[in-house]
Model the fold of this input.
Amino acid sequence: MAALPEFDRLRVVLVDTRNPLNIGAAARAMSNFGFRRLRVVNPYEVAFQSARSAVGAADLLASAEKFGSVTEAVADCSLVVGTVSVGPRDLQHTLQRLEAGARLIRDHIASGSCALLFGSEKFGLSNRDLSHCHWLMHIPTREAHASMNLGQAVAICLYELIRDAAAAVKRQAKSPASSAEMERITDTLLAALRASDYPKLNSSVSFHSAVRRMIRRFHMHTGDAEFFLGMLRQIVWKLEKKK
Amino acid sequence: MAALPEFDRLRVVLVDTRNPLNIGAAARAMSNFGFRRLRVVNPYEVAFQSARSAVGAADLLASAEKFGSVTEAVADCSLVVGTVSVGPRDLQHTLQRLEAGARLIRDHIASGSCALLFGSEKFGLSNRDLSHCHWLMHIPTREAHASMNLGQAVAICLYELIRDAAAAVKRQAKSPASSAEMERITDTLLAALRASDYPKLNSSVSFHSAVRRMIRRFHMHTGDAEFFLGMLRQIVWKLEKKK
Done:
């Protein structure tokens, strides 16, 4: 995938993050998916410094912006979305599942800027942080274990923003073996069985058909059919030589 | 979301993992999304032991199965899928984008078992590991920075398996304010402006309409309309008292 220009209208905002590994992981996922605008609010200073070694995301971390409050960090954004794990908290906001929320964010960043807020590892976003948000979004985890690792949560939200609903299943590009090729394989396998005194060979009139059907079920492509036929021919040659 | 019975037909297989944090992160994401069957192949022993403290996933890690080879780890699975980041490697397999590959996996685990393989942090899956796979899957990352953190990659693959394409955008449940409520607000705001000697009030015949339109654009719900009207009435009371 390629990073789209509108991705620069999304600001990933990490609030009160304590663990440098999580800042680094968030930055790495951003880089993986083509988002560049990282903002940190009141990070534990040591965490922010140590995070700068994140694999492949050093530039992104170096250009991260530091703010003293959520108010300042979201000031230039026309949409503010807070991420929450669904807990006992009595939410005052509309809560969107990630699949739906990401659609709203994608629509918004086509022309406007959006701040996507992630709270601290231990407490998430505070009610005060949430009061800056237009609506909230949650990743659909199990209720029994709703709370995600911060780096993983950032990665999943960004993935949902870049995923392509229309991505199609790829079929094997190689052309499937022709009936003639499969029939040659069937015949050669039967010859090998005959030369090996395979017991059922003459006991059932339908055996030949059963082998033919089995070979068709293998769904071989041309290259493999040729490869396999060569093996069988060698086996037949060896078996007949031994007689 | 709730874990579905077929989720137990998926085995997450971590091959040659070195970092205990990654084993723990994989286990945590599995638990978040309701997958329970973790298999580790040839893990660095210390890593496997240290990982057992992963947040909320201790049971899952305690029941993880350890294998000496990929052959053994996938023996009971009828579909084996390898995850790769798209690199320079010349792949011999069909490569599916995650969105499409996850559909194939979901279809398969409705009745059969599937092993989903993740390689080591440094080298990914080896060509030998890949030879066990029916096809390969990749997360659509940027080519310039394709390689993801292992724990994040596991989390994203599992999320794609549980995501609900039909999840709808939730509209605000609260009923929108009625025209009568909005008209009361409009009138009270105009009264406040009049009492404040707001200059434009008498200069433009269309000013009243402009205020009315603005109030409608606020898309208030009933509760907020009442809340806001109370504030305006208090302001008007104070302004008129001061005269």
Notes: Chain A touches chain B through 51 residues (CB under 8 Å). Residues 222-242 of chain A form the longest helix (21 residues). The beta strands of chain A are 10-15, 37-41, 65-67, 79-83, 95-97, 114-118, 135-138. The mean pLDDT of chain A is 89.
